[in-house]
Amino acid sequence: PAAPPLRLSACSPAAERCLPSTRAAMPLAAAARTARAAVAAAVARRALGHANTLALRSNALSSSSSSSSSSKDNNKTAHSIPIDLSTRKTVVVGVSGGVDSALTLALLCAANEHRVVAAHLRSWDAAEEGGSGDGDSPEHCEAAAERADARRVARDLGCELAEADLSREYWHEVFAPALDAYAAGLTPNPDVACNVHVKFGAFAEHARRRLGADLVATGHYARLRPRAGSASGSLVSLLAGADTAYDQSYFLAGVGSGALSRALFPLGEMLKADVRAAAAARALHVAQKRTSTGLCFVGRRRFGDFISSYVAGGLEAGEFVDVESGRAVGAHAGVALHTIGQRARLGGANEAYFVAGKDAQRRVLYVARESQSDALLTRGAATGAFSWVAGAAPAAADSVAGMRVTFKARYATPTAGATAWAASSAHAPRVPPSGFWRAPEAALGGVETMSGGAGAGVVVRFDEPAKAITPGQMLVLYDGDECLGGGPIQAVGQSLFEERRAAGATAGAVRRETPFVII
Q: Which residues cross the membrane (predicted)?
C-alpha cells in the first residue's frame, strides 16, 4: 500500500515546497519514480520513528527514570539516548551541504516536536592560501559551494542557517598536527581528529553556548545505545551504522561517551541508497550530490601539490630500497607523499613494487616486489594513547588471555579477528618491531593528540596476518557491532618476510607459529 504523506517541518509554510506535487496522470516512468519515492518515504518514516523513540521521546534521565520498570528499559532501541526529551528541547543540526546532513535536518524538522536549528560549520579558511579572505577559494576549496548548498537546504526547509567559524580550532587541533605527522613519515587520519576536537568538541560547545543546544545532530552513519550499568544513565555505547558500506563508527572512535550522549545520529539505521531516495522524495536538491571523499582541506588538488605548500621536511628526495637486496632501486620525491601499501613508481622495473616501510630520518622508503608481498604482512601492532569510548579499558584487557575483538586498521577495510591487551598490563605480549619502520618519537605524540586518546595504548595480536598496517592510522576495536574505541598505530610487528629471513627459511616459506611471547 502507498505510504501516507510525510509531515514536513512546521518551521514555516515555505517548507511545503519540499514535497513534489502529485499529478492525476503520469507516464509509466514517472509512476515508477513516484512508487520508489513512496517506498523511500516509508523507510525514512521508520528511521524517524526510531529517531523519535530514541531521540525525541526518550526520558532516560527524567525524574521518573529511577523508578522505571525493567520492561521499559528493555524497550529502548539502539538509537535511544539517555536524555530527557519529554519536554521541548533545542536540537542543533550540523548541515554540511551534503545529502546526509540535509536529510537529518529534514527528519528532525518533520517531527515538529522540538526547536530545530540548522548550523553550518566552517573549518577551513582559504585566505591562509592566498584566497579571497572571506573563507572561499574557488580554485581549490569547495567551502563556498558547500556553504551555498547548506543555505539552500535550510531555506527550502524553512529554517534559518547559523554559521560557526571554527577554522582557528581546526588549524591548531587538526591541521597542524597532521602536517607534523606527514613530515615525520606517518599517515594520520584528520577526520578522526576533526570529530574529536571540532565537531563534537568546539562545535558542540559553540552550539550549546551560542545556540542554546541541548543536543547536536549530524548525518553520521552510526548508532547510539544507553550503556548498561551507567549509574546516571548519562553514558552511551557507540554502534556501527546499519549500512556496513558507509558505517562511520571508525571515524567516531576517538569521541568519548560523554560527548556522544549529547549527540543524535538519525541516519544510523538507514542505508545510503534509502537516504538518497528519501531526500529525493522531499525534493532536496542535494539528493544525488556526490559523496565527498579524501581530505577536506585538500579539495580538488593533487595531494602532493597541496602538501608541498606546507611540509618541507617530508618532501626531501630520498631512495627506494629493496627489502630483499637492501639496494637502492630508485629515487622518490619525499616520504610524506607515500603510505604503506601504495604502489611505488619505479621506472624500468620488471615487476610492481609496493611501499613496505619508511625510515623518515634517513629519507628511505622500503619497497617490496609484488612476489615478496609477505613484506606487507604482520601478525600484530601496538597503538599510542588509546581512547576507550566508555572511558576505561574493559577488565579483559588486563587478563592473561586478553580480550577477543575485531579490528579495523583502515577505514575502507573489513573487520577481522584479533586479541587485544592494554599495553600497561603485565600480561601484554611483546611485539617484535619491524625493522622497516622508524619515525621521530615527537611525531607519534602529535598523532596521539589528534586521536583524542589520553590513556595507555593497546597491543593487538591478529588472528591472521594483516596487510599494510600503517603507523599514524587509527586501529579501532569492536565487540560485535559495538565500537570500543581506537588509538593511532605506533609500532608495527615484524613482517612475515622478516620472520622468514630471520629464521633462515627458504624463499617463499612462511613460518606459521606466532612470534608473540607472553611476558
A: none
Do 269 and 352 share a domain, yes or no?
no
Residues 483 and 415: their CA atoms lie apart, in Å, by 11
Q: pLDDT tens for residues 40-76?
A: 455 445 554 544 444 333 332 222 233 333 333 333 3
Q: Which residues are tagged catalytic?
A: 194, 296
| Beta bridge partner(s), residue 119 | 94, 162
Rounded to two decimals, the pTM is: 0.81
Q: 418: helix, coil or strand?
A: strand
Give strand ranges (E) for 305-414: 318-322, 328-332, 343-344, 353-359, 364-369, 377-383, 387-388, 403-408
- 331 and 430 inside one domain: no
Cell of 338: 607515500
The x, y and z cell numbers of residue 282, run together, are 522531499
- pLDDT surpassing 60 at residue 460: yes
User: Nearest 10 degrees: CA dihedral of 182, 186, 192, 193?
Assistant: -50
Give which of 105, 99, 158 is closest to 280, Cα–Cα: 99
Which structural domain, as residue segments, surrounds residue 500? 374-518
Structural domain count, the chain: 3
Q: Cell digits for 277?
A: 531516495
**171 and 46 within one domain:** yes
252 and 110 within one domain: yes
The span from the CA of 232 to the CA of 49, in Å, is: 25
Distance from CA of residue 409 to its chain's centroid?
12
Instruction: Give, to the nearest 10 degrees, the angle between helix 99-111 and helix 272-281.
Output: 60
Shared domain check, 325 and 472: no
C-alpha cell at 222: 552510526
- Of 250, 230, 208, the closest CA to residue 76 belongs to 230
